[in-house]
Structure formats: C-alpha cells, structure tokens
Amino acid sequence: LTIQNEAQLKEIVDRLVYQTEVTDMHTHLFSPDFGDLNLWGVDELLIYHYLISETFRWTEQDYASFWEMSKTEQADWVWKKLFVEHSPISEAARGVITIFNRLGLDTSSRNLNDYRAQWAQKSAEQQVDDVMAAAKVKKIVMTNDPFDDKERAVWTEKQGNQDSRFYAALRVDPIVNQWDQSVSKLNELGYDVSAEWETRTIEETRRFLSEWIERMDALYLAISMPGDFSYPSEDHRSRMIDDVIIPVCQDKGIPFGLMIGVKRQVNPQLRLAGDMSMRSNIEAVQNLCNRYPDQKFLVTMLSRENQHELTVLARKFRNLMVFGCWWFLHIESMVEEMTRFRLELLGTSFIPQHSDCRVFEQLVYKWEHSRKILANVLNEKYATLMQEGWVLTEAEIQRDVEDMLDVNFWRFLGKA
Ligand code: FIX
Ligand code: ZN
Fold first, then answer.
1. Which ligand is located closest to the Cα atom of residue 173?
2. Interface pTM (ipTM) of the complex?
3. How many domains does the chain have?
4. CATH number of the domain that residue 331 is part of
5. Distance, CA 90 to ligand 1 centroid (Å)?
6. Distance 327 CA to ligand 2 centre (A)
7. Domain for residue 406, yes or no?
8. In what helix (H) or strand (E) does residue 15 lie, and over which residues does it extend?
C-alpha cells in the first residue's frame, strides 16, 4: 500500500510512532518481583530527584530538614512549590501532569489527596500492567547492582526476576570507579581480590562478573563515567576495562554500555539530585571502538557539546550504538535537536531514546513526549522524500519505526 499524500503520511507516521511497542533499554525500574525496590505512586513521582532540585530553587529551607521529612511531607512540599505556587512548566513537572491526565485523573482539581486516594486502590502488579499498556512499553531493561544488599537478596535468597517483560543490565560502576571500596565488598561476597592489580584479583573479578551475568541473565554491562574519563590511561579504569570488562563481555558475547559525562555530587546536600553534567573527550570512545572492533559498545553522553561528534563517530564504527537523550538532555528542545541530526547522520541506525525512569508511571510521560518529537521529525523527513517522487509504503515506515523503538537494540545484541 503506497502513501498518496502528506496528510496520509502524517496519519500513518503518527499512528505508528505512537502505537509501536517500545523496548526501553535503560531504566532504573524493577519488576514487581523486587518488592519495594519497584517505585510507583504519586508520592514517589513527586519526590523524583529531578523535581527535588527544582523545588529547592524556590525556598531557603535547609537541606537537612527536607531529608528528615517523611515521603508524604516531602511530596506535599514539592507539590506546593512546583505545582501550586508556580506553574509546572519544566519537563519533569509537566511530565507529572501528563501522567495524571493519561491515567484518567482530573488535572483541573489540583487535589493531591484525591490523587493519593485514587492510587491507593491499585496494587503494584496492576499498576505495572496498566502503565506498560498506557505507555506501550513491552520490554524494560533494569539497572542491576549486586552490591546493593536489598537487591542482591532478591537474586540470591528469593526468586530473582521472573517477569518476562523485564531484563537485567549489570552495573559495574563500583569496581571501575571506586575500586578501594569495592575490594572489601567483593571479599564479603566470596571473591578473593586485593587492592593490588595482580593475576588472582583479575581472575576473581572476572569470576564475579561472569557469575552475576549468568545469575541475572544480564543483557549488557553498564557504567556511568565521569566527564574526565580518558582511555587508554595509566589508571585503574583502563586496567579494569582491558583486563576484566572486555574479556568478560567477549566471553559472554554481550555489549558494554557507557554513559559518559557525569560530574557526581557537585552539591552533596541534594544527594541523588546533586549531580551535574560535564563535557567529555570523545577520544576515549574512539579508542575503545578502535582497539576492540569485535566488541559492541552502547554509548550515550551527557553534555550537549559532545552529541554531534558522538554521532559522527558512530558513522566510523559499526560496533558503536548511540542511544538515548540522557537526563538533562531529556527535554523537548534537546530531544528535537539530537533526534534530527542523528537521523540526518545515521538514518535510522540508532536508538533514539531510553527513559531512565525511576518511578513506574514516568514511562507514560517520558515516552509520550519523545514519541511526539520523533513523529514530527520523521514526518518532515519522509515528506521531503515524497516531494522528490520517492514512493513510500506503510510497511516501510513500520519497519523504520520498529527498528528505532525496538529492534535496533536487540539486533545490536545479536538477539533479533
Ligand atoms: O547513572 C545513571 O544511570 C543516571 O541515569 C542516574 O544516576 C541519574 O541519577 C538519573 O536518574 C538520570 O536520569
Ligand atoms: Zn540511568
């Protein structure tokens, strides 16, 4: 079925982009198997760290007294400052309103206790089903950390993840970025490592990763790197990557995911909300892709200034998959800019978005806001092709959209 005109094109592109079920390849969500690690509900939505840092801009209140409050009190405070005393215009605040509206709440009432009462009628399992249906997300990749005592207990003492819609990604930040603290933790878990970088330590750290990849059935190893990450370098990071991470990834046939450009804790008083972005040196990624052509790298970067060169680099290395508009880039203007030049440089061979959700209902707004932009940019690109006499079919557009929202990720993993 060929597309006849631009009105029909728009109907088809919008429908496909809004309806195609997504694989969300990086989140901080958990399946209901993980009990209260699965965050959901209106209070959790309001105390999302993005909103906490925005709220503090409107008050002189000291940080400590905020952290001493109960969750409900914190949520009341965020609601008052960001939704009552000011309009919820920022991306994160607007997102809450999108969620309320899509889940059928009356956004005009502004009555937080009514919203709470409506949420109280749900179970975690029900809400996970309803939100995945509303957001049209079919597969969710979690962020999994064996050093987290609560999470580890679910994997080792309970059933682990039994929900086939959820997948694991093994986070390796501590062993790469905080080796000194990790040594004792690994010892506690039964791995014979020492602070010295010697054969036994290397073998045992490999064994740690291999065993946890198997236990979790992890799709990839993941890390966030500071903006000053350089590779190769005479430092622990390069040693860990060369001697442990890459050999294990190669052995298991899984990608290494790098999220580069964080400056952690520029304001520690804000806790999780206290991190900043930082420009990075793209050569680290170039050198990794070059040294390990058989190893796949999933990469996203946090500063706007690195985006264009990262996309150009993906033209040079097929083992590099660019993904998502991360964190402070997950705002309308940046998603639009990045999606546009990524399409212009790479065609459809990238992963335009991941949600990074921490609270379950956020899937609704993060995906809807991004789909809207993707649909607009795609409409424009297909329209210019049609103007040149190129004949498009609905099936071709469906293929392209499915690639970007779902299949590119699995194909890169060798699982599609
Ligand atoms: O390192 C990460 O995976 C980051 O996404 C998080 O640490 C960050 O706090 C976040 O939630 C960003 O969206
Ligand atoms: Zn994240």
1. 1
2. 0.99
3. 1
4. 3.20.20.140
5. 18
6. 8
7. yes
8. helix 6-19
Ligand 1: residue of 28, 176, 262, 275 to mutate (most ligand atoms within 8 A of CB) is: 28
Q: In what order do the strands lie in the sheet with 166-167?
A: 22-24, 137-141, 166-167
Asked if the structure places residue 1 within a domain, the reply is no
Residue 163 within any structural domain of the chain: yes
> Closest Cα to residue 362, out of 33, 41, 16?
41
Please, which residues have CB within 8 angstroms of residue 262's CB and are 6 or more apart in sequence? 224, 225, 226, 227, 275, 276, 277, 278, 302
Ligand 1 atom closest to the CA of 330, numbered from 1: 13
Give the integer Cα–Cα distance in Å for 409 and 416: 8
Q: Domain range holding 13?
A: 6-412
CA-closest residue to ligand 1 atom 9: 272
Domain assignment of residue 130, yes or no? yes
Encode pLDDT of 172-219 as tens digits.
Answer: 999 999 999 999 999 999 999 999 999 999 999 999 999 999 999 999
Pocket test for ligand 1, best of 45, 221, 327 (most atoms within 8 A of CB): 327
DSSP per residue, 185-221:
HHHHTT----SS--HHHHHHHHHHHHHHHHHHT-S-E
pTM of the full predicted structure? Answer: 0.98
Return the CA Rg of the chain.
22
User: How do 256-263 and 276-277 pair as beta strands?
Assistant: antiparallel
**Shortest-distance atom of ligand 1 to CA 272:** 9
The two structure tokens encoding residue 152:
């580890």
